[in-house]
Amino acid sequence: MALTAGIVGLPNVGKSTLFNAITKAGAEMANYPFATIDPNVGMVEVPDKRLDRIQEIIPAKKVVPTTFEFTDIAGIVKGASKGEGLGNKFLENIRRVDAIVHVVRAFDDDNITSVTGTVDPLDDIDTINLELGLADLDSVNKRLVKVERDAKSRDKDILAELAVLQKIKPVLENGDSVRSIEFDEDEQRIVKGLFLLTAKPVLYVANIAEDDMAAPEESKYVKQIEDYAKKEGAKTIGVSAKTEEEIAELDDADKADFLEAEGVAESGLDRLIRASYHLLGLGTFFTAGGKETRAWTFKRGIKAPQAAGIIHSDFERGFIRAETFSFSDLDELGSMAAVREAGKLRLEGKDYVVQDGDIIEFRFNV
Ligand SMILES: Nc1ncnc2c1ncn2[C@@H]1O[C@H](COP(=O)(O)OP(=O)(O)OP(=O)(O)O)[C@@H](O)[C@H]1O
Ligand SMILES: [Mg+2]
């Protein structure tokens, strides 16, 4: 099942604009709140310089980057957890995503409607996080009623869940997120089954003005968001969604020219895509040479046969072994022959945990 990053925030802050910049999907963007009702789903290519380097050393006919999914969700407003602005439906859409990309307005522009009437990133973040937290508190309380009743059976799993719920409840009542709590492995498994919104990993996108693109870190709004995010251990990335959307259709050379003219060293968009990929716990392995060199997305922690199954179910069914070397060895040694000579080509079996940057040839038999 594909993991998806959900784009979440107040109405009219630029979520769909960011989504279009990322996916080139052409979702509706408009200068009024609730332009988005049903979620937009789109795929994004993961920018990865390692592919260029592999192609340089082991030339293939074609190079194929890997992709992953983003979901653009309707704006959340104050009271959403109590059903305001179609709140419940929109919160359910957030429940289905695996990580949250929280877009915060960080640009001044009198022509763009603000649902709060001001530009105040911290207040905006609080509004969203409060609604997500209240929705979680509601879920926890409902679950507690049932689990407290069942706990009379002294069933060990039920008692474990009860303890987790009792650990979570006061944190939510205090206005904090579930992700701020430390859980051991068993507890984590229980938390996962509760599908709580504030347990999802998050990163913040400061949607900045075009004028701030050259030095996002100097924007007062970005600074405010960064300070807040740091306390949660979360990352902040400054992106001008509108400008990125406008240049999304340009080819790479024209885009580079534009960014250079603006004095922008690196597009925030690429950093955002990579950070979201990371947030979802995704990694990349490669297949190289011959017809195509290709990057593949995998969920970190999977073993070699499952990774083979991402390419083709036959590869998983008939898995024999994974002939593996790492990108960093190839990069350093400069040729396939040198990798072999240095003993860096490994024969890995069915218990091998695939690593980001592995270059793999699967042997299988069906
Ligand atoms: N960085 C920016 N600077 C100025 N205007 C922007 C910026 N980013 C987005 N906008 C403008 O903000 C308006 C709202 O954008 P968009 O429709 O993407 O918001 P949204 O968050 O998806 O809204 P909704 O919640 O209604 O779906 C659009 O007019 C868009 O051009
Ligand atoms: Mg929208």
Note the topology.
Blueprint: E1 4-8, H1 15-23, E2 40-45, H2 49-57, E3 60-64, E4 67-72, H3 87-95, E5 99-106, H4 121-150, H5 156-173, H6 185-193, E6 202-208, H7 220-231, E7 236-239, H8 241-247, H9 252-262, H10 268-279, E8 282-287, E9 290-299, H11 304-311, H12 313-317, E10 319-326, H13 327-333, H14 336-341, E11 346-348, E12 358-364
Parallel strand pairs: 1-4, 1-5, 3-9, 5-6, 6-7
Antiparallel strand pairs: 2-4, 8-9, 10-11, 10-12
Helix pairs in contact: 1-8, 4-5
Bound molecules: adenosine-5'-triphosphate and magnesium ion (MG).
Residues 15-16, 35-36 line the site of magnesium ion.
In brief, what are we looking at here?
The chain is an alpha/beta fold and 366 residues long.
Describe the structure.
By secondary structure, the protein is of the alpha/beta class. It folds into two domains: about 5-280, Rossmann fold; about 300-365, Ubiquitin-like (UB roll) (Roll). The chain is built from 14 helices and twelve strands. The protein has helices spanning about 15-25, 50-55, 85-95, 120-150, 155-175, 185-195, 220-230, 240-245, 250-260, 270-280, 305-310, 315, 325-335, 335-340; strands at about 5-10, 40-45, 60-65, 65-70, 100-105, 200-210, 235-240, 280-285, 290-300, 320-325, 345-350, 360-365. Helix 1 (about 15-25) runs parallel beside helix 8 (about 240-245) and helix 4 packs antiparallel against helix 5 (about 155-175). The two termini are about 25 Å apart. The model has no long low-confidence stretch (mean pLDDT about 95). Magnesium ion (MG) binds near residues 15, 16, 35 and 36. Magnesium ion (MG) binds near residues 15, 35 and 36.
